[in-house]
């Protein structure tokens, strides 16, 4: 199921099109297991374990790393604690 899940995530195919002839479980079974692993917090722990392994092997090369808004929220400025979230209402008053 792990290999089937990685195959779907890597290729982007639909879960229902997971090729069983490659020895994977059904796509629905892999999808359900993925949901269970997400709920159990498996992916962050796996990520940390892989990073630790790469660090110990001195195999991380940050010269090729990039950060974008798909993983880290890009904010234009931090909101102060005393500011309420604005809905935009009232901005038109006095606007030029």
UniProtKB/TrEMBL annotation:
PANTHER family: BLL5188 PROTEIN, TIS1421-TRANSPOSASE PROTEIN A. InterPro entries: IS402-like_dom, Transposase_6_like. This is Insertion element IS402-like domain-containing protein. It comes from Streptomyces diastaticus subsp. diastaticus. Residues 1-47 form the Insertion element IS402-like domain.
